[in-house]
């Protein structure tokens, strides 16, 4: 049986497609089907009688739980990625260096190289990206082409690739991610799961 959760429209330049987002009791999953379009002749313009409305409370709770699990997993993955592989940094943010290294100031060739150990933390004092960037193109500033200037607590300053750093913070606790996930679920939008 198919319980209609949402009726959605996807707009394109000239035309639209119409979708039914439903809970399928056979697969116990949330799915979508296109039931109409403005691209040409369409058999119908509203969800057919095959979708059951209104949705009983127990089915809606199953759908909400599926929605929650997907949102929770996505938020948890995103948080892990932001901490372990940041694509940008803000001035004043604390970063942790991933490996031992040294940096030589090319503007002051007589100075000794500045060394650091993996796990040392430093504050971002400068951010820059190198390369030719195009507004709508394939090359955009990111983790691999961004450099950061870092200042250690003892006053040492170095410049390294962002890909040599991670955020110096813990992952968000699961309880906090759960709160955020439920706030998404409470606002509905099952279409984000299937479209």
Provide key terms for this protein.
four-stranded mixed sheet, SH3 type barrels, five-stranded antiparallel sheet, 23% helix, alpha+beta, 195 residues
What is the topology?
Elements: E1 2-11, E2 16-24, E3 29-37, E4 51-52, H1 57-84, E5 94-97, E6 101-103, E7 114-116, E8 121-129, E9 146-151, E10 157-161, E11 165-167, H2 174-186, H3 191-194
Parallel strand pairs: 1-4
Antiparallel strand pairs: 1-2, 2-3, 5-8, 5-11, 6-7, 8-9, 9-10
- DSSP strand content: 25-35%
SS-based structural class? alpha+beta
* Proportion of residues in helical segments: 10-25%
Low-confidence parts? none
Helical stretch tally? 3
**Count of the separate structural domains:** 2
Brief summary:
By secondary structure, the protein is α+β, with helices and mostly antiparallel strands. Helices cover 23% and strands 32% of the residues. A hairpin with a 5-residue loop joins strand 9 (146-151) and strand 10.
Describe the structure.
This protein has helices at residues 57-84, 174-186, 191-194; strands at 2-11, 16-24, 29-37, 51-52, 94-97, 101-103, 114-116, 121-129, 146-151, 157-161, 165-167. By secondary structure, it is of the alpha+beta class. It folds into two domains: 2-84 and 186-194, no CATH class; 94-167, SH3 type barrels. It has a five-stranded antiparallel sheet with strand order 10-9-8-5-11. The chain has a four-stranded mixed sheet with strand order 3-2-1-4. A two-stranded antiparallel ribbon has the order 6-7. The chain is elongated, with a radius of gyration of 25 Å. 13% of the residues are buried. The model has no long low-confidence stretch (mean pLDDT 90).
């Amino acid at each position: 049986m198919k319980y209609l959760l949402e009726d959605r429209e996807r707009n394109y330049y000239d035309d639209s497609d119409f979708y039914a987002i439903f809970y399928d009791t056979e697969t116990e999953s949330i799915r979508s089907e296109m039931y109409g379009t403005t691209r040409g002749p369409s058999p119908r313009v509203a969800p057919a009688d095959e979708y059951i409305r209104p949705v009983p409370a127990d089915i809606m709770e199953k759908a909400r739980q599926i929605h929650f699990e997907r949102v929770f997993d996505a938020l948890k993955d995103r948080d892990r990625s932001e901490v372990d592989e940041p694509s940008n940094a803000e001035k004043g943010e604390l970063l942790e260096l991933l490996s031992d290294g040294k940096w030589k100031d090319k503007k002051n060739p007589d100075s000794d190289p500045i060394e650091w150990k993996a796990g040392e933390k430093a504050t971002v004092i400068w951010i820059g990206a190198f390369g030719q960037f195009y507004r709508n193109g394939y090359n955009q500033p990111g983790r691999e082409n961004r450099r950061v200037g870092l200042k250690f607590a003892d006053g040492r300053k170095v410049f390294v690739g962002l890909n040599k750093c991670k955020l110096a913070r813990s992952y968000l606790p699961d309880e906090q991610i759960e709160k955020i996930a439920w706030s998404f679920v409470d606002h509905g939008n099952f279409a984000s799961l299937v479209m």
